[in-house]
Amino acid sequence: MDRNVLHRFFAGTASFEEEEAVCDWVDASDKNREELIRERKYFDVLLLHKTKNSSMVQSGHRFSLPFVIRESLKIAAAISVLLVSALYISNNVGKSAPVLEMNKIVVPPGQRANLTLSDGTNVWLNACSEMTYPASFSEDIRRVSLKGEAYFDVSKDVEHPFVVQTKKCDIKVLGTEFNVRVNEAESDCEFSAALLEGSIELTNKMEPGSSIRLASMQKAEWTGGKMVVESIRNLDDYRWKEGLICFEDIRFADLMKRFEKTYDIRIVIQNKSLHDYKCSGKCRVSDGVDFILQVLQRSTRFTFSRSDDNTIIYIK
């Protein structure tokens, strides 16, 4: 069946004759019915997300991947595996000091976590991330440490500032929403902090005396050995907590690295010409990596296969 006819049928603009033809075609075989369902899924993708470049532009080596946001998709409230440990601090004298219990949450590849801290702060942790935090905040400063990526909705408490410690920078806040990413594996950006609401202050651990204050809708990235501050242009970058992978002008190779984290699978790009192609779009984690790659195949030429043990995807 002609794809354009099917798309008109889905959109409700097909002629009576075309509608009859589609119905007859679907009734003819189960294979046709499966193709209709598959094409409807692609049509939903194209319908609900318009992109500037729906096909690859050879001169700029670009292609776009549009995806629909499912309304029923909710923020993940739990993960299948949480590794939690407790650390206890006491002094060396006979009299014990108040015990401070520290919890550690580790999010494995392919998972996300959402938790509420004792002060009411809401935290979303992305895949391959870990955070250490007290079971109960009892000090003047509410302090947590982070590796990986997290989104914080901090409960406001002027008398008890909230501090996120990372390897690169410390982030001090009073009450705000912000996203933090610390990734030593990525060469283009080792540290990123994006402020969506409120105010935060960044202290560079390499230069303890220097600090940067961000205003709402600003982000700071550690790039090329220095901190760069600019305005946030796309809020989609921080929608991973909703089960979305959003990307804009990202290299194909870097996108595959992101898929590796999200789906806990190794991806080997054997077709080297794909490495620098730029991709833009949104995809649902729930759609699965195979479906996303199939949509990408509609814009550029490559094939993919899985290893016998299903742990590696080869892109050719």
Automatic annotation (TrEMBL):
Annotated FecR protein domain residues: 104-200
InterPro entries (UniProt xref): FecR (IPR006860), FecR_C (IPR032508), Ferrdict_sens_TM (IPR012373)
Domain of life assignment: Bacteria
Any GO molecular function: sigma factor antagonist activity
Pfam families linked to this entry: FecR (PF04773), FecR_C (PF16344)
Record Gene3D superfamilies: 2.60.120.1440, 3.55.50.30
Domain Protein FecR C-terminal: 245-313
Protein name: DUF4974 domain-containing protein
Native organism: Parabacteroides merdae
